[in-house]
UniProtKB/TrEMBL annotation:
This is Histidinol-phosphate aminotransferase. NCBIfam families: hisC. HAMAP family: HisC_aminotrans_2. Keywords: Amino-acid biosynthesis, Aminotransferase, Histidine biosynthesis, Pyridoxal phosphate, Transferase. Belongs to the class-II pyridoxal-phosphate-dependent aminotransferase family. Histidinol-phosphate aminotransferase subfamily. The modification N6-(pyridoxal phosphate)lysine is found at residue 210. GO terms for molecular function: histidinol-phosphate transaminase activity. It comes from the Bacteria. The lineage of its organism: Bacteria, Bacillati, Bacillota, Clostridia, Eubacteriales. It comes from Pseudoflavonifractor gallinarum. The gene is hisC. The keyword Amino-acid biosynthesis applies.
Amino acid sequence: MKEFWSSRIRDMVPYTPGEQPKDRTFIKLNTNENPYPPAPRALEAAKQAVGEGLRLYPDPEAGQLRAALAAYHGVKAEQIFVGNGSDEVLAFCFQGLFEPARAICFPDISYSFYPVYAGLFGIPYREIPLREDFTIPVEEFLGNNGGVILPNPNAPTGIALPLAEVERLAAGNPTAAVVVDEAYVDFGTESALSLLDRYPNLLVVRTMSKSRSLAGMRVGYAVGSPNLIAALNCVKNSFNSYTLDRIALAAAQGSVEDEAYFQENRRRIMDTREKTAAALEKLGFRVCPSQANFLFVSHPERGGKELLDTLRAQGILVRWWGKPRIEDYLRITIGTEEEMEQLIQVLRQTLGRDK
Ligand code: PMP
């Protein structure tokens, strides 16, 4: 087996995303999708893009979308890079900003794609354990690293790193790129975008999959100094000189232009998150303080796998990793109010709190 495979990937373990079931209907709280539809303007723009124009290649520069994002964030268009989901943008970061000679670091208990990319692109890395309370020990990330990458808020804990701490990371790694993966930032975390002027080594990566309900369109982007963005363009152009397809470009632009819908969408998720966290705590769960569209929870009376299986049998999908330190934890995506009420109802029965 593995004949003809590159020796580089023979021992690799590819990333396994959360289950996307096709055989039956579940309440799907396992991959942090948004339960609400994309903005009406995004849907309208996507529909408009479907037509005769699809015979033409999309704009390789994604000029209009980059201009719209630049205006939205108050930066220049040359400070914006767009890609097929932030996963692709992150892959380009590993290729364009990190190197085989110097180990990068990221937290141990973090986005599980980072070690996969590091393996794929031959980047050595050091994983730094979270503190007992699952916060990030920033002091251990400072020094002569080959780069730093971390989600803020962290995934799957949902815990946010205060802006001053992100600044310490950027200032404390002056010779390396510091990539802040802000996939969930819109659900209550202060963004590192405000630091960009002062830290040319800082790159902020965003996605439209979560707060903009566009996971199916695969749109992600990075904001940073023109120098870092040029590195990502260098990788992209050697790989696939086109960025997003015409429909994704249109939908993403429509979403950026629909600020009122965006604000309502994220506000609704945050409200439901707070209600759900309170209901789970009442049932005896330990709930990490989340600034994301998910909750990371454990229960003293039940193991993580047991809860995962029980919920699945009742038609509710959540995420469980079974890794050391977090084997008793589940990550539960925030769905609609009704979905979360059903979740609480099932858990109440499971824990015998309905008597
Ligand atoms: N970063 C983090 C921390 C994530 O959890 C995810 C979603 N799995 C992503 C990036 C990638 O999101 P997407 O590719 O949909 O933009």
